[in-house]
Model the fold of this input.
Amino acid sequence: MMSAGLRRGLGFYAAVICVLSVLPVLVIVIESLTASDYVVFPPPGFSLKWYQEAARREEFQQAALLSLGVALAVSLLSSLLGTCVALALVRHHFFGRTALQALFMAPLSLPGIVFGLALLQFLAAYALPRDMIAITVGHVIITLPFAVRFITVALAGIPPVLERAAQSLGADGWSIFWRVTLPMIRPGFVASLVFAFILSFDDVAVALFLTTPNSTTLPVRIYVYIDQNYDPLITAVSAVVVLAAFFVLAVMERTMGIGKLFGLR
Done:
């Protein structure tokens, strides 16, 4: 058992890490309220003018809607495909199972910018368009390994005897999955949805190579704007995204518990 001093030391260390992680976000939120026309901290005055300016910028609104639509589609597709893959890898033994598992985990070994460039070359080689569908496919590929991992961990905690018991009582394959397997892997499935959504919405490396002037995601729009401007508009946009994410997490914690999604309690 850990001594009281060690527990206090670990608690202090965890608190320091949390503060250092949140501090940059807090600085961005405070800076978004500046009355200055340039980025300076601490702000010489406070104003909501940059939020008003962000609300008037149609390009940021369109980019946010595009990112939201792509992230929702990616989270659903990645989680559904991840469930199918995890069921095949965990519940069945077949030739090439290890190689197939390594194949689905392969995107994790590639830097995002390398994968994005490779996907761009693939689309160019076959004269395929760069659009919302291309971005969605690219994000599904990079989020699928995480979905497979979440669902695999959830399935590993389910004794196969429960599914065999349902089968012995006359349930068919679909009924077993819908009434037995899915309710028990729901925390892993929801965690996969959340994680895939965050990864897709926040991605720059892949989307940077696939976006066009008519289909630009919000992170890419922010990246391009920062490269050409030096005003606090981006801090306001970023603060809105942070506050929206905080609101969603707070709702999820109140309704189902974040810890339960990741198997922490």
Notes: Residues 51-261 form a domain with the MetI-like fold fold (CATH 1.10.3720.10). The chain has a mean pLDDT of 81. The longest helix spans residues 58-91.
